[in-house]
Amino acid sequence: MSETAATQSPWQTVTITRIEKRTPRVTSFFLQPSRPFTYRAGQHVDVRLTAPDGYQARRSYSIASAPETGETIELAIEKLDDGEVSPFFHEVAAVGDEVELRGPLGGHFVWSDSDGGPLLLVGGGSGVVPLMAMIRHRAARKSLVPVALVFSVRVWDEIIFRDELIGLNDRQDGFDLVLTLTREPARRPQDYARRVDVHMMVQTMMRLPEPPGLAFVCGSNAFVSAAAQALIDAGVPAGLIRTERYGV
Amino acid sequence: MVTRGFSSGRKPPTDTDARIPPGQYLEQGFPVLSAGPTPRVRTDDWSFTLKHGPRPIKKWSWAEFNALPMSKMTRDIHCVTAWTKFDTAWQGVLVDDILADAGIEPPTAFTLALSYDGYTTNVPTKDLTAGKAMVALLYEGKPITADHGGPARLLVPHLYFWKSAKWVNGLQFTERDEPGFWELRGYHIYGDPWREQRYTGDP
């Protein structure tokens, strides 16, 4: 093999350094790359698992950590009962285990504080993960770009990053958290207890000092379809809305 | 590198193995992916334009386009997010028949597919002709839903599925291979699933 042919594989080994349960179905895995990389808030990575017979499975996961946090990246992975990779993480993976990772990936569903705002974020369930990276990036940069997050979950105990989000909201530095629970009553005055709709989007936009310069929507396909339509009906131009969908 | 504790329980049976490109898994459903909100295009408002650079060559209304020769394609499709779906059945107008109706031979070696939402994707012209690609109007015998790119989507099944532009409203011949929406955002310029050309920098 000639020297020029020895190009580096885009895959690298990462080591699980910490595991933290976030909700009954979502657990965070902290990964130390062997080749640390920089990334932008909202990007994802591909994770690859290899069986003894060579069979490989790969899935994409959004990065939850902010680029400023250091070399370790956080993936918050929801357990899917019929999944192939997420059950491995939830049932098998332990601190010290190694998996393969490729990334960072994606150049559209990303935000930096220099991109400005105001920012309207709409997340359903684990769709909050890339939005969390944006919110953490804003906090790490001490940015004052106004940001509102509408976070839809079924019940209070399924609110991923709940204490951290409420803590950031309580700083009153321009980050506004609006929770909407679809199967429980609301617990805070600004919260809702229903699925996202146009009225909720209009009211959330009124929390921002001016109309959003960008909107990011992430969640299941059904959630993203409904939320993006609600944003359009609330007057947000389609060209300002970026979406990321998962599931069938 | 073998992953501790991971087994090949989902490995596809060998009779289907040869149909699944490297790094893909078999999906029974039909996942929906897009970069923005779903445009709702009424067929009354729909049109399709063939262009050479900025210059329109021919434009069809929905009725005119539906009067073109219809063909069927049943193909396996491969999404870059790693799912593969077998035997998807489409009906529409082959790019060959669009060119024939316009009375032209392909003027350049490169094409950019254009969509209602501003999405673009580049495909070499030779990957669109000789029966390889169509503008699909029906999926499994029914109008394509807006989620899946209706009223019309490009179908280039031998490339990763982001090349099969949803809500397509035109093909533009270009002098050079001009990267489209995802190709400018880290995805491979060509996108052959059998060579696993997912991202920029893949061989």
Question: Can you describe what's shown?
Answer:
The complex is a heterodimer of chains A (248) and B (203). Chain A has helices spanning 86-91, 128-140, 162-170, 198-205, 221-233, and strands at 11-21, 26-33, 44-50, 56-62, 73-78, 98-105, 119-124, 147-153, 175-181, 214-220, 241-246. Chain A is α/β, with parallel strands linked by helices and 248 residues long. Chain A has two domains: 12-105, Beta Barrel (Elongation Factor Tu (Ef-tu), domain 3); 113-245, 3-Layer(aba) Sandwich (Rossmann fold). In chain A, the strands form two sheets. Chain A has a six-stranded antiparallel beta sheet. In chain A, a hairpin with a 4-residue loop joins strand 1 and strand 2. Chain A is globular, with a radius of gyration of 19 Å. The termini of chain A are far apart. Chain B has helices at 14-17, 62-66, 95-102; strands at 25-26, 47-52, 55-61, 71-78, 83-94, 110-115, 120-124, 134-139, 142-143, 153-155, 168-174. The model of chain B has no long low-confidence stretch (mean pLDDT 95). The interface between A and B is large, with 43 and 38 residues. Chain B: It comes from Mesorhizobium sanjuanii. Chain B: InterPro entries: OxRdtase_Mopterin-bd_dom, OxRdtase_Mopterin-bd_sf.
